[in-house]
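thread from #wetlab-drylab

HS: before we spend reagent money on co-crystallization trials with adenosine-5'-triphosphate, can we at least see a predicted complex? here's what I'd submit
DV: go for it
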Amino acid sequence: MAAIHLTLPRDAPAASSCATPAGAEALARLRAWPGEHRVAVGLSGGVDSSLTAALLVEAGWQVEGLTLWLMSGKGACCAEGLVDAAAICDQLGVPHHVVDFREHFRGQIVDFLVAGYAAGVTPLPCSRCNREVKFGPMLAWAETERGIERIATGHYARVRHGAAGDPLPVPGDGRDRHQLLRGLDGRKDQSYFLYDLPQGNLGRLVFPLGELTKADTRLEAERHGLRTAQKPESQDLCLADHHGSMRAFLDAYLPPRQGEIVLADGTVVGHHDGIEHFTIGQRKGLGVAWREPLHVVRLEAAMNRVVVAPRSEAARGSCVVGAVNWVSMAPPEEPVELTVQVRYRSGPERALLTPLPASEADRQAGRPYRVRLDFAEEQFSITPGQAAVFYAGEVLLGGGLIQP
Ligand SMILES: Nc1ncnc2c1ncn2[C@@H]1O[C@H](COP(=O)(O)OP(=O)(O)OP(=O)(O)O)[C@@H](O)[C@H]1O
């Protein structure tokens, strides 16, 4: 992949007292970090990654900015992001590398999303992007091209590197593993999207913002005089941002296909213009007038139908989760009680996880772990294609994809 190298050496900004206690703690942790203080910072041009780079420079690390060019276009995710990332590196006096990943992103994320929606699942692009586009390739690029082993990003999550002697609130013994913890800011916590990172990646990551709130980040960014300090939040999904909305993104790739909205017995209660515009559990925006509220319970791609049901029939008490990645604990052999998030924004729900035998296809794909989840309370938004992520308190134990 072609890389554009910009090296504008300047004096690093002088350290000043932090604006927040969390910022001061983050700085102290970075200063005390054991081992080599050389890092490539994934820079998107937003405030989170800008401050990540600024804190590392302030802590005395040797920093290089690395921006993956993911999409053509002008917006915050694209050209504007590249310009802001370059300006931040200029201000901090560190080199900036831009690597053209547009084709890789299109193949791994855009095509994957379009194929998933067309097949009636609601794919989760962000965890796949983290594994297949961001961390794996970023780490490989930094190591091969720059001889740098570590990557830092502005994710709101924490990694605990096999802290021997730490009391671990995890089932089993996870002491020899790199563990992933929720970001302390509950509203920003991004651990859900990181569940699929392999141990080899986690061991090389630095998340300086894991103990900051978003408000802390903006205050610290102001203190550093970063031009991105007050840059507005991006939407959860960069592709929706890029196209204006998720509907606009899907419209660009999937032509409208009229179909029926039906009850389980086949009664037609309405019409739609593409199953990709619906998701399991959805109640609002169905365009259906019925005597009681209806929820989407199934998307039937072959029939191009959306199946709906009253609330009493829409809940599910269990599901199967495949391609499980075990993060903070070794794969269990016995059932385990834990909490589960079935969506990024859904609350953790209590469930019993039972390991299932792997299928031959799972084994061949190198993803042999498959489990069944039985929820303490019935759920309304168990959606094939989304991730079910397992937690014990603040520790992310593992996660996988909800099977149809
Ligand atoms: N195109 C990119 N190239 C390199 N790193 C990236 C890129 N996009 C995101 N990252 C890294 O991943 C982190 C999380 O990305 P996300 O898309 O969730 O952005 P965000 O939380 O809005 O962060 P920011 O404010 O830095 O844009 C960023 O803070 C950044 O370190």
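DV: The first helix runs from residue 21 to 32.
HS: ok that's useful, forwarding to the group
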